[in-house]
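Priority: medium. Attachment 1 of 2:
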């Protein structure tokens, strides 16, 4: 340190301070998570799936509806948004372009979260009710738990997470206690993309829904469920892009952030359901095709598909001596449980098959994902009629996803699915949430 003695003391202490701050900041950032998790809980009254994200300064738990197909995270900023780290991106900034915003707002009220000048506008969208409003983009701290694949680990912070400020009036229809929606869609500012960008991991996530507490993983696997069962060997099929947004309100030319897959046929046991091929394709105005949705509690089918599907199921159930009983809304085909056996994968009913891009890639749906118990002795085929003008012909809903692990790989545009985990002697409620941090 001979040379340092000739330095002025002020410069030296500045250098020391600089070195000190470097090492303390590197100590803080040296933990790089390989993957993150969110707990996902089903709300029994709305049948929506909800999650909790820690946000703001000081951090508070923010309960939001988990939306597989949504575009961004939006929360109500009208009520109770208190944070010392809230800030607004300027119009035409990099953040605004990443958010895909095309508008610049002025707010004629006193400044507060959700009311700023020279900030880019957003369109928070309640995808349950289809109500959208105008809001603004904002940045704030988000904290989320890391995982090694079998347990949660420590929390990690993202200092400037991009979200959209919505308002009170579009919360209507969402599960009690929630203040917005967390979007998993394929947009640049969807949660999977922002998490991947913050920690440089793969743009990939996996979801395991249940009627209780399930889990979503972001980044790399493994995905391990009790009693120590890693879920791998997924079947995969391409993710398809709908060129036209399916949101309630959107900017002209924006692609849909939702996840579409190419169902080419639907079978019940070995019988193929007659379906107009036109309905299974996404046309140039964005109609048709099959998407995956967590905001639809049950799979929705365009009317002609629904009718053909239900009548074939009823025919095959009758052939197995399963007694049909009066329908219970919203379902169109219900049965007595009397002559129905029970297996590890649910009631022993005719197996439903969604045939994907190749005849060997088949999503098999067993009783556990096809039959909904509505009373002690009555079960219903858990599919609903989407009407004749359905925008999307088949919307695979929450009940059909439960206890299946599904993976969305945005980097390689592939969808992976496990089929029912009940067949692998575990289920989606079996993630070990005991933290090892
Ligand atoms: C935004 O600018 C307008 C017009 O200059 C002003 O009246 C208003 O108070 C400002 N709003 C905020 C939130 O700063
Ligand atoms: C995750 O960490 C826990 C606790 O240290 C350990 O028991 C488990 O085996 C780890 N899992 C993986 C997949 O590394
Ligand atoms: C796409 O399908 C919808 C619904 O069937 C139809 O109204 C629309 O005209 C179709 N668009 C094109 C370009 O074929
Ligand atoms: C259905 O019931 C009829 C009459 O009771 C019986 O002959 C037939 O074997 C049963 N079929 C099946 C598949 O159980
Ligand atoms: C869950 O993980 C914790 C921490 O690794 C472990 O102590 C506990 O035994 C696990 N629970 C079960 C049911 O295996």
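Attachment 2 of 2:
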């Amino acid at each position: 340190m001979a040379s340092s003695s000739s330095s002025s003391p002020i410069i030296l202490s500045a250098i020391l301070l600089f070195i000190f701050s470097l090492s303390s900041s590197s100590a803080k950032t040296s933990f790089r998570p390989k993957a993150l998790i969110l707990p996902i809980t089903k709300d029994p009254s709305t049948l929506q799936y909800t999650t909790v994200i820690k946000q703001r300064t000081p951090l508070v738990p923010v309960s939001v509806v988990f939306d597989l197909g949504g575009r961004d995270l939006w929360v109500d900023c009208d009520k109770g948004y208190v944070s010392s780290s809230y800030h607004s991106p300027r119009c035409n900034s990099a953040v605004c372009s990443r958010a895909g915003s095309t508008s610049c707002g002025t707010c004629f009220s006193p400044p507060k979260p959700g009311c700023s000048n020279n900030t880019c506008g957003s369109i928070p969208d309640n995808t349950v009710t289809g109500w959208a409003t105008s809001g603004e983009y904002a940045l704030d701290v988000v904290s989320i738990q890391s995982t090694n694949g079998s347990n949660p680990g420590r929390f990690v912070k993202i200092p400037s997470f991009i979200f959209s400020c919505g308002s009170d009036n579009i919360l209507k229809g969402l599960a009690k206690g929630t203040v917005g929606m967390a979007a998993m869609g394929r947009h640049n500012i969807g949660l999977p993309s922002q998490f991947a960008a913050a920690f440089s991991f793969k743009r990939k996530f996996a979801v395991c829904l249940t009627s209780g507490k399930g889990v979503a993983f972001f980044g790399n696997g493994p995905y391990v469920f009790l009693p120590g069962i890693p879920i791998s060997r997924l079947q995969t099929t391409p993710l398809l892009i709908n060129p036209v947004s399916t949101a309630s309100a959107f900017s002209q030319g924006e692609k849909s952030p939702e996840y579409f897959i190419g169902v080419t046929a639907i079978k019940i046991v070995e019988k193929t359901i007659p379906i107009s091929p036109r309905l299974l394709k996404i046309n140039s105005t964005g109609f048709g095709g099959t998407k995956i949705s967590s905001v639809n509690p049950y799979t929705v089918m365009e009317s002609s598909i629904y009718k053909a599907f239900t009548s074939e199921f009823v025919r095959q159930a009758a052939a197995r001596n399963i007694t049909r009983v009066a329908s219970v809304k919203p379902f169109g085909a219900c049965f007595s449980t009397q002559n129905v056996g029970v297996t590890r994968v649910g009631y022993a009913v005719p197996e439903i098959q969604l045939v994907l891009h190749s005849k060997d890639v088949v999503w098999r749906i067993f009783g556990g994902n096809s039959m909904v118990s509505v009373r002690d002795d009555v079960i219903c085929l858990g599919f609903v009629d989407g009407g004749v003008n359905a925008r999307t012909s088949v919307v695979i809903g929450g009940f059909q996803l439960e206890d299946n692990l599904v993976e969305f790989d945005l980097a390689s545009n592939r969808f992976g699915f496990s089929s029912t985990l009940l067949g692998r002697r575990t289920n989606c409620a079996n993630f070990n949430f005991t933290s090892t941090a």
